[in-house]
Amino acid sequence: MKYILSKFSHELRNPLTTVYSTVQLIEMQHPEVKEFKYWSNLAHELEYMDRLLTDLSDYSKSEKLQLETFSLRSLLEKISLSFAVTIADSKVQYTSKISPSITQITGDKTKLQEVFLNLLKNAYEAASPDKSIYLEASSEDDNVHIIVRDTGCGISEEQLPTIFEPFVTYKKNGSGLGLAICNNIITAHGGTISVKSTENVGTTFFISLPIHM
Length: 213
Prior knowledge:
Oligomer: single chain
Low-confidence stretches: none
Shape: globular
Number of strands: 7
Mean pLDDT: 85
Radius of gyration: 19 Å
Helix content: 40-55%
Strand content: 15-25%
Number of helices: 5
């Protein structure tokens, strides 16, 4: 299945790039087209297709890890600071608590960063103004535990069982691959990811990762 998706996204990438480049060239040579009805929708849909192909490619490669030993605490602190700066102009309150006991871990640094950023991004999109987002990381025995919680809109009881399934999405213009990719990456590391949520109260994601694979 993943091979087929990878092949599919690769075969579509070149013609889509050609179409998108042509649209940009037309805009440069004839700026008046921006005023044409449906032109902005065309550009928007092409951008959405490009993001979808990127997600398809990422999904097909999500279980292929490039292992290294690195400081997970440093990575989480860097992600936390970057995220805080990103939402600084909003009214959403962000808090993080990263235990000093977290040191080095063996894993794919780039893919784990993708997981944490994706969960924080989802939390921000779910959190209405004056709500909060919380990141906590701690270690116990040979495992690291990361929690990402928001006091946002929550997920319905009916939707919860399917949120990690590929191509299942409840967000407008969502590909349905973000959480599926997160699940694949964490599972490939020998870890687990789970979620608890209540509508109009908030959502909490729980990640557990072994320090050594």
